[in-house]
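Researcher: I'd like a candidate sequence for this fold, 484 residues long. If you have to choose between options at a position, lean toward the conservative one.
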């Protein structure tokens, strides 16, 4: 745990590193990104081991969801960095000639990234890529719930990156609170809405801009899909989008499914078959299912099933082992809408299926709940797709797939409403950690004399014409040929 004096010393070094101007150079930014890429490649086995110890993730899942996505993001940033950094010309009206304008991106300064435990490497380093690309100095506070990953970051980052510009500060919630007492130029927080409110409150003290990546209940609307191949593919994507992504411990994992009542039995049967094909008849013995992060979250999930009315809705799975923090992939059919499992974010391998008389009712069902970080729909119905796009609001929307929108560098990733605000990934990360400064250059060649006092009606006429770019009217007024 950092002492107050040690923390103050680190922050002073970060501020001095930023003020000296080295982080504004493209060469420095590219060196940091390349260093991060080298870290991921040279320490790959160590990262695999840390993710296995902390979360029980298989190497393939760890590479798919954390290492691979980071390498992809770094390569994308390196390929586009000079373009992102370059000034962008801003158009001006003809009457402003010979004035020119441009937008220049400049780094914000010293930024704080508070990461979370479900993707402890990916969600620590993904925002770091954007922060470094934008030319900031950075503090990362990893989650204490994944201590092996936190320690790995603390021990390796100083070797591969500029230690005067990037710091890893480990510790529990009290360290996070200590960090939040300081002034930052930007804070990006990933975690719960409860802690997000605390972050915002602390940031308000210094008027610090904040990006919050929170959670929510992500719905998946499953329509009737007539084609057998398409239906099989949809089931695979749903199962991996719920159970195969950190065992459902992901903010954009499917939280619940909406389906027409007449299709519910077939859906349960198809999902059950696909769960068994991915995780075996005994998922407890599978090496393809991550475990629950700790006992607290295990008991939280267990309590969601305590209600007898909810327990009666379990149609597949339901077994748990507190000693190994194992929760079996579980399907529930029509649990009570007021039960905790339908009002709280599940964040685990429990999947409620809610039946509707008509699939069109799913739009209203979704809109009655807080906005989610992601929403999904599986359908061939173009009209229903359009309605989901135009009539529902969520951080992202994926049609006929799950989770993959997270990996798209060209799409912004972030929540809306109670699921958070702000966005990152790709160029959106660069802009999140940048200030876009408008620059205007004027010559002394021309002047709009009518913008200066003393005022008269003639100047008022000229101003009216100028703001609607009516250049003919301006000429006529100047020549005395137009009086009103």
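Model: Candidate sequence:
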């Amino acid at each position: 745990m950092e002492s107050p004096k040690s923390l103050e010393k680190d922050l002073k070094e970060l501020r001095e590193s930023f003020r000296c101007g080295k982080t504004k150079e493209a060469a420095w930014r590219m060196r940091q990104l390349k260093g991060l890429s080298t870290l991921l490649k040279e320490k790959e086995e160590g990262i695999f081991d840390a993710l296995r110890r902390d979360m029980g993730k298989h190497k393939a899942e760890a590479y798919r969801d954390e290492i691979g996505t980071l390498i992809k993001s770094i390569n994308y940033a390196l390929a586009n960095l000079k373009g992102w950094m370059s000034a962008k010309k801003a158009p001006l009206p003809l009457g402003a000639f010979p004035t020119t304008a441009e937008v220049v991106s400049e780094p914000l300064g010293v930024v704080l990234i508070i990461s979370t435990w479900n993707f402890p490497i990916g969600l620590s380093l993904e925002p770091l890529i954007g922060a470094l690309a934008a030319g900031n100095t950075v503090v990362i506070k990893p989650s204490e719930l994944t201590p092996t990953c936190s320690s790995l970051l603390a021990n390796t980052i100083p070797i591969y990156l500029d230690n005067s510009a990037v710091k890893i500060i480990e510790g529990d919630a009290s360290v996070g609170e200590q960090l939040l007492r300081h002034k930052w130029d930007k804070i990006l927080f990933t975690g719960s809405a409860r802690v997000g409110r605390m972050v915002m409150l602390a940031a308000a003290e210094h008027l610090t801009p904040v990006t919050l990546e929170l959670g929510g209940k992500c719905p998946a609307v499953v329509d009737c899909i007539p084609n057998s191949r398409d239906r099989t593919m949809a089931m695979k994507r749903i199962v991996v989008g719920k159970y195969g992504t950190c065992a459902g411990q992901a903010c954009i994992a499917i939280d619940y499914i909406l389906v027409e009542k007449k299709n519910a039995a077939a859906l349960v049967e198809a999902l059950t078959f696909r769960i068994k094909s991915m995780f075996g008849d005994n998922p407890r013995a599978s090496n393809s299912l991550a475990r629950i992060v700790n006992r607290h979250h295990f008991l939280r999930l267990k309590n969601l099933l305590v209600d007898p009315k909810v327990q009666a809705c379990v149609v597949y799975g339901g077994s748990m082992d507190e000693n190994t923090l194992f929760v079996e992939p579980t399907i529930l059919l029509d649990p009570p809408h007021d039960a905790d499992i339908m009002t709280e974010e599940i964040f685990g391998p429990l999947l409620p299926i809610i039946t509707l008389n008509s699939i069109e009712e799913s739009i209203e069902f979704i809109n009655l709940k807080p906005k989610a970080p992601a929403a999904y729909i599986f359908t061939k119905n173009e009209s229903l797709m359009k309605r989901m796009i135009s009539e529902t609001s969520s951080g992202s929307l994926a049609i006929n797939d799950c989770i993959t929108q997270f990996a798209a560098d060209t799409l912004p990733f972030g929540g809306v409403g109670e699921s958070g605000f702000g966005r990152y990934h790709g160029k959106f990360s660069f802009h999140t950690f940048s200030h876009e400064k408008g620059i205007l250059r004027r010559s002394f060649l021309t002047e709009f004399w009518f913008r200066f006092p003393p005022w008269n009606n003639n100047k008022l006429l000229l101003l009216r014409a100028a703001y609607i770019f009516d250049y003919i009217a301006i000429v006529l007024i100047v020549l005395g040929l137009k009086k009103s």
